[in-house]
Amino acid sequence: MLRRRPLLPHWLLIAACLSLLLLLISCTPSHPQSTFDAAGPVSRSQLNLFWVIFWASLGVFVVVVGALLYSVVRFREKPGQAMPTQVHGNRKLEIAWTVAPALLLGAIAVMTVQTLFELEDPPSDNPLQVRVVAHQWWFEAIYPEYNVTTANEINVPVGRDVSFTLDSEDVIHSFWVPKLSGKMDVIPNVTNATWFRADEAGVFYGQCAEFCGVAHALMKFRVVAQPPEEFEQWLAAQQAPARTPTEGAALAGQTVFSAKGCIVCHTVTGPDTEALRASRNRGFLDGQPLTHGPNLTHFASRGSFAGSIMETDDENLAAWLRDPEQVKPGNRMSRLAAAFNDPALELSESDISALVAYLQSLE
Ligand code: CUA
Predict the structure, then answer these.
(1) Best-predicted range by mean pLDDT among 6-10, 249-253, 287-291?
(2) How far is the C-alpha of 250 from the C-alpha of 245, rounded, in Å?
(3) Is residue 311 part of a domain?
(4) Local confidence band at 235 (pLDDT 50, 70, 90 cut-offs)
(5) pTM score
């Protein structure tokens, strides 16, 4: 007996189902980087526009594919059928399917342009100013009104507009916090701007969204939205100079920090460190000043480091210091070590544990 061949091979059917499942999972609003869970007015407007376009497209899809399937089934060739009437063109139909899409696209264009204008500037006249500088492969955040510089984590007050200026120190990056706002390119020698507002407290995950080199996928950051009082406390703590260790492993770590050259790239604001740092500056690597490593003044107050790919804890810090290339390939710290190739800069295990203690003391 003849078995009918299935319409699709089994493997293709399974692959299609799995892909569909993956696609649907990626839409879950509970995903930390889901654009379907808007937590502020900017992402909400963008999401609303998306839904309008999505439902309009789905409507078009259903009408067009429905008409196609209907015609295929209804007018299929039947045995003994005579030649059907031959027609050429139908003016009314052609006008209809030219005018309808034009109207639909026109409406979408109006809504899109409206949203673009609405989101151009923050509505409040007193937004918090944050300057973001993208580096391969981490984000720096500077609060110019408060003289605060931090890295990888951007603290913002809940309910207040935050206005960002975006600069890049090297190549093109893109600044994106899916739950708070859409992407904005970060381009060297061009200052772009964007803004958002967080309606609720929480940690919102961001990601560089423009391919920018080997560790692009590891260029993440976090937005920490805090109630206004908590944010004020955070600001005050960030404005203070770094704690100076007085004894134990942290003090030993501070010595390693200056002796091994960490201080050349990383700022730790304090009376002793700045003079030391200036005296040890070694100039440039790949045309950029060496001083442009993440500011570590209040390193231990951040939940993550190394492009926000690692949680701040002793074990992760030690792993990073032991072999940064393993953690984030191509990063500047390992390239620098290779460029100078100076055994005096290598870290022993006791150097590493002292450095970990020092960094963890920088609250
Ligand atoms: Cu920076 Cu991708």
Answers:
(1) 249-253
(2) 6
(3) yes
(4) very high
(5) 0.85
Q: How is 301-337 classified by DSSP, letter by letter?
A: GSSEETTTTEESSHHHHHHHHH-HHHHSTT-HHHHHH
Count the neighbouring beta carbons within 10 Å of the beta carbon of residue 10: 8
* Ligand 1-lining residues (CB < 6 angstroms): 134, 137, 173, 208, 210-212, 216, 219
Q: What is the pLDDT of residues 325-358, one digit of tens each?
A: 899 998 888 887 777 777 777 889 999 999 999 9
Instruction: Report if residue 209 sits inside a domain.
Output: no
Does 266 map to a domain?
A: yes
Q: Report CA(257)–ligand 1 centroid distance (Å).
A: 28
Q: Whose CA is nearest to atom 1 of ligand 1?
A: 173
Among 18-32, 169-183, 187-201, whose mean pLDDT is lowest? 18-32
pLDDT tens digits for 258-273? 888 788 888 888 766 6
Q: CA-to-CA distance for 346 and 20, rounded, in angstroms?
A: 49
For residue 202, the number of C-alpha atoms closer than 13 Å in the C-beta half-sphere is 14
User: What range defines the domain where residue 253 resides?
Assistant: 248-361
How far does residue 139's CA lie from ligand 1's centre (Å)? 9
Report the CATH number that the domain containing residue 301 is assigned in CATH.
2.60.40.420
Q: Look at residue 44 in the predicted model and tell me its pLDDT.
A: 96
Residue bearing the bigger pLDDT, 278 or 230 = 230
Atom of ligand 1 nearest to the CA of 210: 2
Residue 171 included in any domain = no
Q: What distance in angstroms lies between residue 278's CA and the mean position of ligand 1's atoms?
A: 30
Query: Distance between CA atoms of 313 and 305, rounded to whole angstroms?
Result: 10
Cα–Cα distance measured from residue 239 to residue 230, given in angstroms and rounded to the nearest whole number: 14
334 CA → ligand 1 middle, Å:
18
Q: Could you tell me if 294 and 151 are in contact, meaning their C-beta atoms sit under 8 angstroms apart?
A: yes
Nearest to 153 by CA among 212, 238, 210: 238
What's the structural domain count of the chain? 1
